[in-house]
Protein 1
Amino acid sequence: MSDILKVSIQPLVESDLDEVMAIEKQTFKTYWPSTAFLNEISNNRLAFYFAARHENVLVGYTGIWVVLDEAHITTIAVHPEYRGKKIGDQLLFHLMTFASSKGARWATLEVRESNLSAQNLYKKYGFISVGIRKNYYMEESENAVIMWAGNLRGENFKLKLQKLKESLEKGESNLQEMQQT
């Protein structure tokens, strides 16, 4: 039996913000205010945000900025009750294919040093650790790991995404071998 919960992913809209904020407050110690999300989806022409829904319930969301040939992942969050069902995988897959379609060659993000499950997810998609931002999460005095993925339009990356897509479509829960390809 698969532990993948299939979701539909659409652009985030203003009417999603109450559900986004409920997840945001349960996920992050220091969270964005709803006005920040509203500004991102309404005023930032470089920002693209997406909602993951299952049976009309918003179960996760993500955001990315695409600036020239670089994509910066700003956030990925999954409702605590829906974690472990590969929703983060589906959101990240969507972001990476979207970024590539918008002309990005590189992708970057920051992730808590303590968040090993997120780091492992990013590694599946070709991200590598390239540095540390000291005390990036100031309220908790926690460092951020800076991660980069490159050559998003290269054949190796396209093959990696194709394999990840096939695994997600088949409902395969163990995608660890994808880190090696």
Protein 2
Amino acid sequence: MSHYYSKEQNDVESNPSFYNFNFKGLELKFKTDNGVFSKDYIDYGSFALLKAFEPNNIDLPVLDMGSGYGPIGITLSRLYNKEVYMCEINERAYNLSLENIITNKANCKAFNSDLYEKVEGLTFSSILTNPPIRAGKDIVFKIYDEAYRHLVTNGELWVVIQKKQGAPSSKDHIEELFGNCEIVNRDRGYYILKAKKED
């Protein structure tokens, strides 16, 4: 059986659907399908991350790591008039994100990428992730480790993760990596974590 964080979804029958997402005065429309994460509506973790996120003043693109069909990256691009790069391993979710970028007139570049593979050598002002917990702790921690390399000085990593799915250990790992990690918000069991790259 395929999982939403794997590359191909050939054994999952396609059944596309749509939903509207209204956020801070924005009206967005997303196409989704079977075999992608949170296909019926934006998941609450991603919603909590969008509510908490505050862009910095660094004039570089934002990266949405594990972007799915695009709800975080596209919303941020439209809301803050930012260029957003989006990396997603799931081919079906990636293809949906290409359609959703056009539908919502977002300034986004999407990559069918195994973690940071397709953005190697690039740096970002902020990296946001709702990490794929079911992919395992090694993958989740690799997202944090590689984020440090892909952030400019004073760039920020933003993470949403449930307490019961490892928020405390994620906070400890990020704090060891960055030298700091703030709990920005707690929202229905989700922790919003933020770390700044200071050198």
Protein 3
Amino acid sequence: MKVAMIGQKGIPASHGGVERHVEELSARLVGLGHEVIVYTRPNYTDKSLRQYRGVDLVSLPTIGTKHLDAIVHSLLATLHSAAHGVDVVHYHAIGPCLVSPLARLFGRTVIATIHGQDWRRGKWGRVASGVLRLAEQAALRIPHVTICVSKSLSEHYNASGHDVTYLPNGIAISAGADDSVLTDFGLASQQYVLFAGRIVPEKGLHHLLAAYKIVSPGIPLVVAGDAAGADRYSETVREMANESVRFVGYQYGERLASLFRHAALFVLPSDLEGLPIVLLEALAYGAPILASNIPPNCEVLGDRGAYFEAGDPGSLADALSLAIENRESLARKSAELAQAVRSEYDWDRVARLTASLYRDAVAHR
């Protein structure tokens, strides 16, 4: 089949869970014999790049503002895909699904993946949030098949009368590690706490910084990530940070693998997630983990998790102090989960299931 991926910023992924999802899934679909087009935005992917990991890349223009970037690009990608004979149009995230009726009108098989309830994200005002709630309804009603990466969110949608298929994110584990990242930032093995992710309000870094000031654990807090661009929130968290906090920017591949493997503790303080790839990776690399008690985190960690009350810096401070003291016990729990995580959240398995879903959708459209 010929498949068009629409909604992501582009690949290769430099930041963003949706982009990493699309990259890993698309490359494996190509390996299964399918032709995949990923539409990219020039503010994310070099527009001269035409192919990556066997995936065809098509760069289309957009209006690079917070409110118009995704929807304008998704509209143009939908029109382009209609003129290039694709069999399946696969939308990622709820916002781009606003234009999914066009793909149906053009006679394409339409698939949507809900990566999270984007209307709940802190960066959106009331009007934008309302539009995204409409997009969520489009994602649930317009496609021939709607996928959700979170089991708990899938169950929520199914209980409310929607037909949603659960297919999780996967993980891609780096076989090696580049320990130069420790030297570059003056870090010692097992002597730092790690946060990895985008610096946006829903990831909860401000909760962790507030807790760190309360606890003062005596080892650095390493922040591996950044905002997509300069904004007030990223400025605020940097103002909150003291001398024990080290912002190291985005780290990928073997350098990120090294940060996970050598961390005394990985903390995921999110208020909102779909199914966090970074949590799966931290488990697979054996990092001791402390996470907020939101459903997607509990879904992954189960009764082997160490949790705190989401959105509560005081609860996080208490849990952080206890977790640092008991990190060897947490590391053993992560090790117990590691093999199960690698099996359950395996990209090869996810790609085979996705390809099967495409075939069924095309056959029964």
Protein 4
Amino acid sequence: MKICIAGKNDIAVNALYYVINEYDADNVIVVLNRNDSGKDDWQKSLKNAANELNIKTCSLEDIYKISDLYFFSLEFDKIVKTEKFKTDKLFNIHFSNLPKYKGMYTSILPILNGENETGVTLHKIDNGIDTGDIIAQKNFHIGINDTSRDVYFKFLENAFILFKENFAKILSNEYSSKKQPQVNSSYYSKGTLDFKNIKIDFNKTSFEIHNQLRAFMFKEYQLPEINGIKVEKSILTDSFIGYNCFKEKESEFIISGIDGYKISVQKQKLAGEM
């Protein structure tokens, strides 16, 4: 039996360490994402972890011919074609509460849409995009001031818990699965959002403005701007300050929407600022 961890970031690295502690490390392999530099940064590198643990690195083509293979996709960046494998033991953890939010931007879109909950889903891999049968899910709360970065880290934490809870069941074939319902199913492609043209619509309620701002607050990728100034935190309050207010202060913007509730939007702190 071979176990393959394919993917990136803390979820893939933590899963790898867990698997080699629970299973024979000689039969564990990894498949890397294309952009894995081999260096730990704000996220751990699967390539670096595999090198340190002396775990064999393979390509997808290398593992197609392995018949007794358990394949786990954990933030993997390649489309998996099931017919190329000799095994049907193909699994993925998707960062959403399927059937909602198949595809891309699962840390951003729930915030934009005003959701207060999301989750992670362990499912079988089929030839659709995040459409496979569901094995298990774990939901969590989206805080009113959580950014997309905050949500992503909650995804990582809960996905690892979900992996640990179900790993032994999968290896022993003691799990069940169910088909995804068509109701409440949604999908978002890469072209759904244009990160080069992020515009905040201030002619909205304070809640909607707040959601637009925090949805794009992920400092390793992008930050939204107000009057050309990057902002990194948005705090929605229940204080009424008047309709459509806009004030700029040294370290923040004070804003309200059409319903008058105060939003405190913190400017990005530059290097060296306290």
